[in-house]
Amino acid sequence: MGDALRALAACVPADCCRGSGARDPRDMPPDKTVDLSGRQLRRLPAHVCSFRELAKLYLSDNRLSSLPPELAQLQNLQILALDFNDFKALPQAVCTLQQLCILYLGNNKLCGLPAELSRLQSLRTLWIEANCLGRLPDVVCELAVLRTLHAGSNGLRGLPGRLQRLRELRTIWLSGNLLTDFPAVLLHMPFLEVIDVDRNNIRHFPNLAHLSGLKLVIYDHNPCRNAPRVAKGVRRVGRWAEETPEPDPRKARRYALTQEDSQEGEAPVLPSLLLPPGS
């Protein structure tokens, strides 16, 4: 093996591919999966982009802030994990991977998503939690077959009305945002099965009994004065969840007054990712 090949082989430990054993790391793994998570990588090893039949690529928990254009060669990729990295913008090459079904982008520094993400019309699960999103990117509403959306721990104050176009959406996770009202658009999405608005600042919940597909609503850790009404058989997680259909109004008033007294004079707490440097 020449010096150039030795240098290439040294870029990635020999066990970088699941099930590879003592295989040459430049060979296509038999299970079509490459896991390079937690290796402190700052760039993607070039040879990975030559695995044209690759189905799953895990790059979580590294120091990546960009990806090479050659990633677009992986047109059979179905799962891509880029969470816990240093991305401030989504690499354009990701938007060319039209077979992607699951995309993990959580715990980065994203302030938005490119319009080109709408090309991913096979995407069923999108994780964008713990980024720097002040609003839900419009392009999310173009992902026609999306079933699961994780958008917690951002700075969302509402949701766009266009979200109701996503008629395949079944689960939406919005915990740890800055919602002060229950998102009105969700009232027009009867096909939703799980709604999570835990850890927001919602004071009143509307009637959700008409959401015929609903199975679970999580509303804990909100300064609410009422529990959301739900249809029979729907599980609630939050204050007064076991009281049907509503808590005693006197208890609700007492709780609301207690919460207001305890919060008086306190500054609102923003997610750490949204605070300016040095705060």
The helix/strand class is little secondary structure
The quaternary structure here is single chain
How are the strands ordered across the major sheet? Answer: 1-2-3-4-5-6-7-8-9-10
- What gross morphology would you assign? elongated
- Average pLDDT across residues? 85
| Rg, Å, rounded | 22 Å
Low-confidence sequence ranges: 1-22, 263-279
Percentage of helical residues? under 10%
Distance between the termini: 53 Å
Number of helices: 2
Strand content: 5-15%
Structure, briefly:
The chain is largely without helices or strands and 279 residues long. It contains 2 helices and 10 strands, in the order αββββββββββα. Helices cover 8% and strands 11% of the residues.
Describe this entry's structure for a reader.
The structure is a single chain. With 279 residues, this protein is mostly loops. It has 2 helices and 10 strands; from the N terminus they run αββββββββββα. The chain has helices at residues 3-10, 249-263, and strands spanning 33-35, 56-58, 79-81, 102-104, 125-127, 148-150, 171-173, 194-196, 216-218, 235-237. The protein has a 10-stranded parallel beta sheet, with no helix packed on it.
Key features?
2 helices; 279 residues; little secondary structure; ten-stranded parallel sheet; single chain
Strand and helix map with partners:
Layout: H1 3-10, E1 33-35, E2 56-58, E3 79-81, E4 102-104, E5 125-127, E6 148-150, E7 171-173, E8 194-196, E9 216-218, E10 235-237, H2 249-263
Parallel strand pairs: 1-2, 2-3, 3-4, 4-5, 5-6, 6-7, 7-8, 8-9, 9-10
